[in-house]
Amino acid sequence: MNHNRSKWMWGAVCACLAMTMMMLFTAASAGAEELIDASGQWRYVLEGGGATITGYVVEPSEDLIIPSELDGYAVTGIGEDAFAFTSLTSAIIPDSVTSIGEGAFAYTDLTSVIIGEGVTSISDWMFIHSERLTGVIIPNSVTSIGESAFFQCESLTSVIIPNSVTSIGSRAFFGCESLTYVIIPNGVTNIGDEAFFRCYFLTSVIIPNSVTSIGRDAFHDYENEHTAPNPNVTLHVEKDSYAAQYAQENNLAYVYTD
Question: Cα separation of 143 and 162, whole Å?
Fold first, then answer.
């Protein structure tokens, strides 16, 4: 298995995706009136009576605290790619924020993130290739974790998925090599394709009976350049559950929890 070649290939693909996302977002925003707040720091647009931060005038310091208000408007959103490719090391998102755009914190130096209680979704590609991210607090307001949300967050060791989450998107934790233990909460019904692919050191995943769909290669690796079940992982499943059947059909180690 050539991990370096695989990592380079995926890195190149993701870089192209990120650039495409940024180009699409620029085009989509062309018709919106972008404002600069009174402090001269934040770029934003008005949407639904609230402010959505689209970027900044001067790149913020390593420790980012998103303001809850700009020029008298509540900050309710963070736009696509708003802080992508920055050197941020930590971020605190206020409770006023309800939506965060795709790729908002992609390719950053973030090590920790606190997400406010207003956010309902961890968007697609939100933290893609933030390779220093070690932990993230996901609030109970979140109902879904999007496609490739934590793709290639290689240092991610701690993630608590709240009971409010019902869906984990395809490749959500792809390449999170430092993850060792995951508890899927009772609310989750769907785990997407390759959701935990290439999580080399993942040893234990608890899957509840609520899960009725698990995508292709969700817990697989590469072996001699071919897809194969992760030999380190054991699924903790309920007897006669969908997850137990999935483990059997995909040659994954499993134990019963009941």
Answer: 8
Helix (H, G, I), strand (E, B) or coil at 65: strand
Query: What is the 8-class DSSP label of residue 101?
Result: -
Two structure tokens written together for 166 = 């019902």
Give the full edge-to-edge strand order of the sheet including 213-214.
121-122, 144-145, 167-168, 190-191, 213-214
**What phi, psi does 251 have (nearest 5°)?**
55, 40
Which portions of the chain are predicted below pLDDT 70? 1-32, 224
Q: What is the pTM of this model?
A: 0.87
Domains, the chain: 3-256 (3.80.10.10)
- Distance, in Å, from the CA atom of 28 to the CA atom of 81, rounded to the nearest integer, reads 13
Q: Are 157 and 132 in contact (CB under 8 A)?
A: no
Task: Return the pLDDT at 157.
Answer: 93
Q: Is 13 helix (H, G, I), strand (E, B) or coil?
A: helix
Alpha-carbon gap, residue 77 to 45, rounded angstroms = 9
d(CA 243, CA 239): 9
